[in-house]
Amino acid sequence: MKAVFLDRATFSDNVALPAPDGIDDYTVYDSTPQDDDIIVERCVHADIIITNKVILNRAVIDRLPNLKLIQLTATGMNNVDMTACDERGIAVKNVAGYSVDSVPEHTFMLMLTAMRAGVHYHRQATDGTWQADGRFCLLDTPIFDLAGRTLGIVGKGAIGQKVGQIATAFGMNVLYAERAGKPPRDDSYTAFDDVLARSDVISLHCPLTDDTHHLINDETIGKMSKKPLIINVARGAVVDSGAVVRGIERGQIAGYATDVFSQEPPPADEPLLALHNHPRVIITPHNAWASHSAQSRLWGILCKQVSEFVGG
């Protein structure tokens, strides 16, 4: 079968990505512009498309007569017109479970860095501030331990649960939030508004849906009585970034650590970028998922899925 990989550059250069077994004609592009004609030109003879972020809409899918499988290199499937695929009998497969270590570890990197003002103190230790001050240590910004604090987790999937396990090892009290506006389904969940009110740190691990779009907004921030740190390793649009900026400026929340934005990369006028020097604002470029081990694990899962498809 003929396969085309449209955006290899969404992986690290030093991660091996061999062709899946059963593929005898394999073309790899570092990136593919979001242009229907170019996508069709590259894929018109393909049986299988492998991609991460290239949008495959109906206009493209309808012009690919040989297409049998769209294999995504991610969990999210919102960049594919699923209805068009169903109508044509085209299979769509995603990859899940590859980042159950990488994302929780990144979550705690963000949490610890923000709670201990790590980037702020790194700057002071290297830009001459420490030398100019002369004291043996600098303590202008409070440093907070995790032990004894309450972590509210929104999203109780595999990643959310792993974050909870790590938090327990740090001595944190863990609350899993029920869906907003719903009563707790069992004793392992806490009402959403109660989690907002009781948490010192709120960590987001939920999918982006109509219900979770701008779940963190002016209203919900107003319910956060303990002025928590908010961490977002879910999707950018789960949070209203303008509301987060206002919450920080008003002292309603302590800070914001995020790996995701509604538009990636964020535009120059993204409100959060103006707070990049805040001691508890930490921004990473959507790479929480991407430890070397996680990328290798992802490709292994993908190869197995493609090979099984090819083998019938």
TrEMBL record:
<dbReference type="InterPro" id="IPR029753">
    <property type="entry name" value="D-isomer_DH_CS"/>
</dbReference>
<dbReference type="Pfam" id="PF02826">
    <property type="entry name" value="2-Hacid_dh_C"/>
</dbReference>
<feature type="domain" description="D-isomer specific 2-hydroxyacid dehydrogenase catalytic">
    <location>
        <begin position="22"/>
        <end position="312"/>
    </location>
</feature>
<dbReference type="InterPro" id="IPR050418">
    <property type="entry name" value="D-iso_2-hydroxyacid_DH_PdxB"/>
</dbReference>
<dbReference type="InterPro" id="IPR006140">
    <property type="entry name" value="D-isomer_DH_NAD-bd"/>
</dbReference>
<dbReference type="GO" id="GO:0051287">
    <property type="term" value="F:NAD binding"/>
</dbReference>
<dbReference type="InterPro" id="IPR036291">
    <property type="entry name" value="NAD(P)-bd_dom_sf"/>
</dbReference>
<dbReference type="InterPro" id="IPR006139">
    <property type="entry name" value="D-isomer_2_OHA_DH_cat_dom"/>
</dbReference>
<dbReference type="GO" id="GO:0016616">
    <property type="term" value="F:oxidoreductase activity, acting on the CH-OH group of donors, NAD or NADP as acceptor"/>
</dbReference>
<protein>
    <submittedName>
        <fullName>2-hydroxyacid dehydrogenase HI_1556</fullName>
        <ecNumber>1.-.-.-</ecNumber>
    </submittedName>
</protein>
<comment type="similarity">
    <text>Belongs to the D-isomer specific 2-hydroxyacid dehydrogenase family.</text>
</comment>
<dbReference type="Pfam" id="PF00389">
    <property type="entry name" value="2-Hacid_dh"/>
</dbReference>
<keyword id="KW-0560">Oxidoreductase</keyword>
<keyword id="KW-0520">NAD</keyword>
<feature type="domain" description="D-isomer specific 2-hydroxyacid dehydrogenase NAD-binding">
    <location>
        <begin position="108"/>
        <end position="288"/>
    </location>
</feature>
